[in-house]
Amino acid sequence: MSTKTAIISGGSRGLGRDMAISLAKKGVNIIFSYNTNTAKAEEVIEEIKNIGQDAKAFHFNANDYKSGQEFIKNATDYLKKKNNAPNFDFLINNAGSGTFNLLKDTTENQFDEMMNVHLKSVYFLTQTALPYINHHGRIINISSGLARFSLPGMSAYAVMKGAIEVLSRYLAKELGDRQITANTIAPGAIATDFAGGSNRDEDKAKMIASITALGRVGEAEDIGGVVAFLCSEDAGWVNGQRIEVSGGMLV
After folding, report:
1. What is the number of domains present in the chain?
2. In degrees rounded to 5, what are phi and psi of residue 9?
3. Which of 105, 119, 200, 248 is least crowded, fewest Cβ atoms below 10 Å from its Cβ?
4. Does residue 85 lie in a domain region?
5. In which element (H, E) is residue 108 found?
6. pLDDT for residue 249 is more than 80
7. Range of 121's domain?
8. Segment (H or E) for 93
9. Is residue 50's pLDDT more than 60?
10. HSE of 9, CA atoms in CB hemisphere, 13 A
11. Is 50 exceeded by the pLDDT of residue 236?
């Protein structure tokens, strides 16, 4: 069994689930967070254990940055008990939610939720995790194609994702002396439960396909393998980069 461990926020469904499974298939042990769906978390744990890797899940509410700090504490306490050391190798900041509203109609509460979920929680969860990340470790933050192109109604969400891309570059610079890389993955439109699963709508899926070079909506399985690659030795010289994984959306 691998001695390397990844901590993934939001690993019970969608993109995070596929990231967890893809890394487990590469021999990585997984600790991930879930918010409310304990049953889905247990399903992922069982699937990872069937692959032959260790898996553990802890609660994390991304709308409360202190919950992220508690998640890291629970994860590192578990690792210390299991491995006699609290350290781990890969941090993937994936947990998120979406809101759709034109800028003129966006409320302060909606804006604050997007800031808490996609920026503040990521910033302070990462800060809490830094002492425990091994030398030559990896940090992967999840942005969005919407930080490059603009679709009406997604401004509050996209603004925070743009900030995450800046944060990744600063992490790369500040952690270079520990040989820790930090990169951003920016998925395009993916057919998951995100934002109410609207990308599964037939008409919207046709629209997305029409503006995507590969002619279809993305699937969760299109993303997990890229995360696994960035956690591999082959990706050791990739640092401070934004990698869009969108099938050529609006190129």
Report:
1. 1
2. -85, 135
3. 105
4. yes
5. helix 108-115
6. yes
7. 5-245
8. strand 88-93
9. yes
10. 31
11. yes
Q: Which of 34, 65, 132, 157 is labelled catalytic?
A: 157
Q: Rounded mean pLDDT of 234-240?
A: 98
**97-103 CB contacts, 8 Å cutoff, 24+ apart:** 97/62, 97/194, 97/195, 98/154, 98/157, 98/194, 98/195, 98/196, 99/156, 99/157, 99/195, 100/153, 100/154, 100/195, 100/198, 101/153, 101/156, 102/152, 102/153, 102/155, 103/155, 103/156
| Model pTM above 0.85 | yes
Structure confidence at residue 185 (pLDDT) = 98
* pLDDT for residue 194: 64
Say if residue 169 is exposed, middle or buried (CB neighbours under 10 Å; 0-12, 13-18, 19+).
middle
Query: Residue 147 is part of a domain; what is its CATH number?
Result: 3.40.50.720
Q: What's at 219, amino acid-wise?
A: E
Note the pLDDT tens digit of each residue in 94-131. 999 988 999 999 999 999 999 999 999 999 999 999 99
Catalytic, 78? Answer: no
Adjacency order of strands within the sheet including 242-245: 55-59, 29-34, 5-9, 88-93, 133-142, 181-187, 242-245
∠ Cα 241 245 251 (to 5°): 95
* Percentage with pLDDT > 70 across the chain: 96
